[in-house]
DNA sequence: TCAACAAATGAACATATGTACATATATTAG
DNA sequence: CTAATATATGTACATATGTTCATTTGTTGA
């Protein structure tokens, strides 16, 4: 019986990856950055200014977002412009929001 | 300009709540428990057996899931049967999955 | 009432994580 | 080439988090 359940479940490996993805969303600084990027493509100092955060804090968090492919960068001169990499990000965000709102 | 962006963003308060929600999904043990509950309503020992986890580990994590209203309990004798509290949980889960799969 | 069982809880501990400060890298302007 | 600016990175540190072990609570059956 528990064997049947186990067989229907995705690989544990995959579930670890999934947890890692949600971990990225599970920090208020990163969520706020993501949310800012819904509105516009922004450079690092733009984000830190907007959210009142240290430049290095933003940069560190952007690296994590980059590594997880949630944001992409476009370099222009001295600036790095960040934007969201795809629509999944917004969907995941919205799903979470509607759970809270219920 | 950054004022306009700020005005369009949800309250910071709400974004903190949202991060807290995703934090719950951001742990492999909890994700695995959630995933098991997609298949069936289960008692605590059933989950620990299925996933190979200590009873107390499962119980601790179920408490967190309960506090965040992701699971609900039905008590029957000595046992506590857990199940998912709503469909949002599955939707959030699936959204995450499809991001990984892409 | 007592033993057996299921689940919940408390405390301690090791590990992970986010932030700040300092510094390095890279690019542009002069 | 140098100074100024934007970003990235390294390190240290405080805090948060998950797990384990031990114990408690609650329920059933003898």
Describe the structure in your own words.
Two copies of one chain form a homodimer. Chain A is an alpha+beta fold and 102 residues long. Chain A has a single domain (2-101), classed as Winged helix-like DNA-binding domain superfamily/Winged helix DNA-binding domain (Arc Repressor Mutant, subunit A, Orthogonal Bundle). Helix content of chain A is 68%, strand content 14%. The first copy, chain A, contains six helices and three strands. Chain A has helices spanning 2-8, 12-25, 28-39, 44-51, 55-67, 87-101, and strands at residues 42-43, 71-76, 79-84. Chain A has a three-stranded antiparallel beta sheet. In chain A, a hairpin with a 2-residue loop joins strand 2 (71-76) and strand 3 (79-84). In chain A, helix 4 packs across helix 5. The longest helix of chain A is centred in the last third of the chain and has 15 residues, at 87-101. The first copy, chain A, is elongated and about 60 Å long. The first copy, chain A, starts with a helix and ends with a helix. The mean pLDDT of chain A is 95. The interface between A and B is large, with 47 and 47 residues. Chain A binds a DNA duplex (30 and 30 nucleotides) through helix 5.
- Share in helix of chain A: 55-70%
Instruction: State which percent range the strand residues of chain A make up.
Output: 5-15%
Taken together, the total number of domains of chain A comes to 1
Roughly what is the average pLDDT of chain A, rounded to an integer? Answer: 95
